[in-house]
């Protein structure tokens, strides 16, 4: 196993409401990056205001970072985190073919959702946040009951049910943190291009027809690529469209 990355803090909480909420509380006291792992999370939150149910044995953690960057650059961190998750999953299962990345920031295992990412930023001054919180939830041990999710949600799966790999949250953190540090270094050193290329090489359904639903519209088209801003590029009957935020359906 790779060593814990230099310069990154690590704290483990027996119970927390939400590791992203905890990140916001402690961010002003931090001088550098910090991982916060909640062994029990009682009020986890997901994207678009949804709840995130954190079941026993699952992974709920947040990385707090202090990048001095504009929001559009910061938003690309979800691709950085997706790549780190992909590598961590491969490290614990040795099954790269089983995993794929779903735009914008889910990880799929055998086509079901095994992990999600919630990126939040706060403390804005001069258009830049003082910190960001990259919240990561992984169904290590249990998948939520599909009946309790929205009917259109991607089928949830757990690592153990699909791969038989029994991994506890602290062990997963110790694999994920160095993987994240690697991709973060690539991002700050070389920019988004190597991240974009690596992400597309692991993407689900490139070249296939998918549906993207934004707050106002629905697009059906061929998943062409992710552009230099992280937008989803779909080739539709009306031409190429570049979509900054949407839920996608296969
Ligand atoms: O909707 C999604 O797919 C994103 C889910 C993110 C859940 C994680 S669990 C750890 C962190 N703390 C939270 O409250 N949410 C994120």
TrEMBL record:
Catalysed reactions, as listed in the record: biotin + L-lysyl-[protein] + ATP = N(6)-biotinyl-L-lysyl-[protein] + AMP + diphosphate + H(+)
EC number: 6.3.4.15
InterPro entries in the cross-refs: aa-tRNA-synth_II/BPL/LPL, Biotin_CoA_COase_ligase, BPL_C, BPL_LPL_catalytic
BPL/LPL catalytic domain ranges (all copies): 1-188
Chain segments annotated as transmembrane: none
UniProt keywords, alphabetically: Biotin, Ligase
Domain of life: Bacteria
Gene Ontology CC annotation, any one: cytoplasm
Family matches, as Pfam families: BPL_C (PF02237), BPL_LplA_LipB (PF03099)
GO molecular function: biotin--[biotin carboxyl-carrier protein] ligase activity
Protein's name in the database: biotin--[biotin carboxyl-carrier protein] ligase
Gene source species: Cognatishimia maritima
